[in-house]
Design brief:
318 residues; alpha/beta; 5-stranded mixed β-sheet; 14 helices; 8% strand
Length: 318
């Protein structure tokens, strides 16, 4: 099914398929990985009635979903919740998963005919080139057919009529319990002037940013929120702050690793893409009461803490 045909098969007004829903429902990336794998198991059971999930106990033999018999020939689908992009940092995991599936087949007396990697995102250009070369080489070496089900392939399957129940179950609108967001405050002149000397501002200047007023406001509000949480010491809110810190740092790291070898040391577009992903992410814990301004500001706090930056040589600036 083409992308156009897939889109036309959706009734007007039906919700789009957003794979961030797994983070929103689960509340964190670890839970999102399990939720995504459960979706794949249901999807494949609809597409191939004989497909079944394999539980890790203690190991899963490199199998997430299986079609065939473990006494003969099998097809394996490998679930990897890589988000928001599949980049250089995920290449090692992909190689290890395929090698693990091959080794388990040889060790346990069955044959692997096809291996399918399932990811809810797209590959950046360098990783796509790596994938094409790696896939061609490993197919020649092993005789195993290797496929990639990226986000568009998965959407094309999910809009099929026989998979409608999977789409409804996982991707119909989901709204968590609403919590009151922390109000956003404006900076005073003294606060604005003091932040000119902040490290996160210097990192932005190094990346070529001329206007940094919005970044200052984001940092200012996130820092107020963080200080309030740490002063009150409510365990659930402290844990939520720590988790949100990990979410923004993880988004930055994935984007940075995908762009670090692009050639331009100023990494144009990195800040914009990271902030877009943070605003769109459903992984933030609701206990934090943080809106988009606070969430973006948490990323500036990571930079201020000397754990990230917006240019290749960000550690030198820090």
């Amino acid at each position: 099914m083409t992308a156009t045909a897939a889109a036309m098969s959706l009734a007007s007004g039906e919700p789009p398929i957003n794979f961030a829903a797994h983070q929103l429902r689960a509340g964190n990336l670890a839970g999102a990985r399990d939720d995504f794998e459960q979706m794949l198991a249901m999807l494949l059971a609809a597409l191939y009635p004989g497909a079944r999930a394999i539980t890790a106990n203690p190991g899963d033999w490199g199998i997430d979903i299986l079609l065939g018999e473990l006494s003969g020939l099998v097809i394996i689908w490998q679930s990897k919740y890589f988000w928001p992009v599949v980049g250089r940092s995920q290449q090692g995991q992909i190689r290890e998963s395929f090698d693990s599936a091959l080794a388990a087949a040889a060790r346990n007396g069955y044959r692997l005919s096809q291996w399918v990697l399932c990811v809810p995102a797209s590959m950046d250009a360098p990783t796509a080139q790596w994938w094409d070369n790696w896939r061609a080489r490993r197919q020649r070496e092993t005789g195993v057919s290797i496929e990639l089900w990226h986000e568009n392939v998965l959407r094309n399957h999910l809009v099929r009529p026989d998979c409608a129940h999977v789409r409804r179950h996982f991707y119909d609108p989901y709204v968590p319990a609403q919590t009151q967001r922390t109000p956003v405050r404006d900076l005073g002149e003294d606060d604005d002037s003091a932040l000119d000397r902040a490290l996160f501002v210097r990192q932005l200047r190094a990346a070529g940013h001329v206007e940094v007023g919005a970044a200052k406001r984001e940092y200012f509000n996130a820092d107020l929120l963080a200080r309030e949480v740490l002063d009150k010491r409510v365990p659930a809110e402290v844990a939520a702050l720590s988790e949100a810190d990990g979410v923004v740092h993880g988004i930055w790291e994935a984007r940075f690793n995908a762009m670090a070898f692009a050639g331009d040391p100023r990494l144009p577009g990195l800040h914009a893409e990271v902030m877009h992903d943070i605003r769109e992410s459903g992984a933030f814990p609701v206990q934090l009461r943080a809106g988009p301004v606070h969430r973006c500001g948490l990323m500036h706090r990571v930079v201020e803490d000397r754990r990230a930056g917006w240019v290749v040589h960000w550690r030198d600036i820090a």
